[in-house]
Amino acid sequence: MKKISFILNGEKRNAYVEPNDLLVDVLREKLGMHSIKYACGRGDCGACTILLNGKGVRSCIILAIEVDGQEILTLEGLSENKLTSLQESFIDHSSFQCGFCAPGMIMSATELLNKNPNPTEEEVKEGLSGNLCRCTGYTPIIEAVLDVEKKDVDKK
Amino acid sequence: MAIVHEFEYFRPEKIEDVIKLLGEYKSKARLLAGGTDLVVRIKDELEFPEAVINIKEVEELRKLEFIEGKLHIGALVTFTDLIDSDIVREQFPFFWESVKTIASVGVRNRATLAGNICSAVPSLDSGPALLTYEADIVVMGKEGERVISALDWFLGPRKNALKESELVCEIIFSLPERKHGGSYVKLGRYKGEDLAQVGLGILALEGNEYRLAFCAVGPIPKRAKKLEALLNGKPLTDSLIEEAKKLIPEEISPITDVRATKEYRLHVAKVMLERGIKAAVERIDGNGPAYGEKLI
Fold it and tell me: Hey, what domains does chain A have and what are their CATH numbers?
């Protein structure tokens, strides 16, 4: 076992890990971050997406030991105080059916909007192309992301 | 699925220490950069390393620089770094266009070009650009540095010219001196993330020189020498393209697999050749479709 330290959702956390422990398992099982979903296990579906140092990554294909000294944001941290405009937009557009893909979708879309606050439909599709949804057929998800900016403007 | 296989983990900060560890563990060592391929292969029990050496702390492998017409891409440079680089987009737009088609954002944020060429899979989207720009791959081992041309790099599916105990330090793209245009045409099964059914990269240089390379239609990404011999020295005309299309079955050896049949790949490669070469030639003078636009 090796002790690793990292920032998880703004707080310093430690964990004892083996070199072959996956980040997804450590975050879910040891640290209770159950928003992260483990599905394909090979980086194809995006259900386990988290932000590592601000970038969307697949926690199912990262060794936990690699994140020593780094910064992680999960859905729990994103909506710690209140839902983000993006999450509200997902609710408004009924972008969930079973909800399994939603945390990963929201993390990927958050990264996209951080980088590009006013994306085109093509850019949204490209930004979410590594996140699979098997229920709603993507349209309400893409609409929710496209609508966020408008929502923020309405609020002001 | 958790990883069952157990291994030692190292995180050296200097190239010398990486080489020392590689010398110690030899074929039982695996280098970890992005990990998007390696971790899956350890999980799938296709690899059983005794030592996993994470090279992400080796700062000198992180450089992405354009010096005197040469683009130096360190082993830790990710595909996202390449896509976000103004220099790559402006100076090597055809390479940029290829890199944009690789996997998805969440994978590109971790995966590196060096890791990609070390995996050396037949469908390597970066392969055609490496082969047509004739990039150099700088590797380091205990005997020092070696430079391997991309043309000599790919030896077979998942086999490359790297020797045991060597690591890739950087990949160098040289800007062609003549005016040029390029195109990467990739056919996946759908828009969005997929491996290529057929990939074709073309670099067209002023003075009727054409360099073409395919991926996903043979055991390795490969230059299309017969096509180049036919095309070189001739201005591009419709009849020349028709002649070139007839040569395709002699040039590539696709197989039937879960993604497409051999016959389909042979057919669509001809369509891709026509669209790709027209775009590459038009782009020499800044015309044609914008880089990054889907050509098929």
Answer: 2-75 (3.10.20.30), 85-155 (1.10.150.120)
Tell me the shortest Cα–Cα distance from A135 to chain B, in angstroms.
18
| Domain of residue B32, CATH code | 3.30.43.10
Q: Is residue B160 part of a domain?
A: yes
- The CA distance from A141 to the nearest CA of chain B, in Å, is 15
Look at B107 and A126 and tell me if their CB atoms are within 8 Å. Answer: no
Percent of chain A topping pLDDT 70: 96
Chain A residues touching B103 at Cβ < 8 A: 43, 130
What does each C-alpha distance from B102 to A29, A128, B88 come to in angstroms? 32, 14, 15
The answer on B139 and B220 residing in a single domain is: no
Cα(B101)–Cα(B114) distance, rounded to whole angstroms?
A: 17
Residue from the list A21, A41, A125 with its beta carbon closest to the beta carbon of B43:
A41
Q: Give the residue-averaged pLDDT of A36-49.
A: 95
Percent with pLDDT over 70 in chain B: 99
Structure tokens given for A127: 């930004």
Kindly determine whether residue A58 and residue B103, on different chains, have CB atoms separated by under 8 Å.
no
Nearest in space to B124 (alpha carbons), one of B195, B33, B46: B195
